[in-house]
Amino acid sequence: MTSSLSFLIFSVLVSYVNSSAYVEQNPCYNGGRQRHLRRPMHRHRHRRADVRFPSGNEVMESESEIAIDAELAGGLMHCICSYKYEGARCEKRIYTCGHGEKSRDASTHREYCRCHHDWTGNDCITPVCHNGLLDERDQRCLCEQGWTGTHCNIPVCGVHGLFVGGKCLCADGFERQFCDVPTATTLLHAATWSAAFSFPLMLVIIVIKMNRNEYRNFNKSLASMDSTKSLISLQK
């Protein structure tokens, strides 16, 4: 019994020491996983460019699995990086900049994402929620009542209503669920106003045309009178 217990304690200690040594010897940064390669022990670099990772709604490729010349545990190894990192030891951050552009700091020369309006985060894929909270798991806005849109900045009731008690209270002249349909009275008023405005306008246009015609006829009369006077003077 005593020997079995001693052996169990010894096994646990050996396992702990080995795991600690593995953590200390792991050369991969930022959550990268090391993978040992088979012998022979000649030095070489091994690249694989079929690692795919999501960037917003896109799928991008990266040479993120690269073998390095490290002689650990009696053989070569390489680092398998997470989709946001690359490099021989996963030391280089990949900035996908979903809703922005890559930029470089003038003093540190480090790359970063310059986000468009209403977007934030290291990769510019986190929306700014004006009237709501961010769902960090899905990276989307959970809007408060009365608001909608990607950034919770669009009123549900539009510009002709007010969200009260779980529904839209429409202004005079508009109806339906979102106050976006003019009422029959509003349409009638619009038609009446259009007719009332267009009739005087038509009269003005007619008067202008009549005046132009009269002016042309008057000029023609003057021209004919001048030609008649010229003929009379020639006959004399």
TrEMBL record:
Note whether Ribonucleoprotein occurs among the keywords: no
Gene3D superfamilies reported for this sequence:
Laminin
UniProt entry keywords in alphabetical sequence: Disulfide bond, EGF-like domain, Membrane, Signal, Transmembrane, Transmembrane helix
Q: Which GO terms describe its molecular function?
A: Notch binding
* Domain EGF-like, chain residue ranges per copy: 120-153
Which stretch is the leader sequence? Answer: 1-19
Tell me the InterPro entries matching this sequence.
EGF, Notch_signaling
Transmembrane feature ranges: 187-208
Which cysteine pairs are joined by S-S bonds?
A: C143-C152
Work out whether the entry's keyword set contains Ubl conjugation.
no
- Protein name, as recorded: EGF-like domain-containing protein
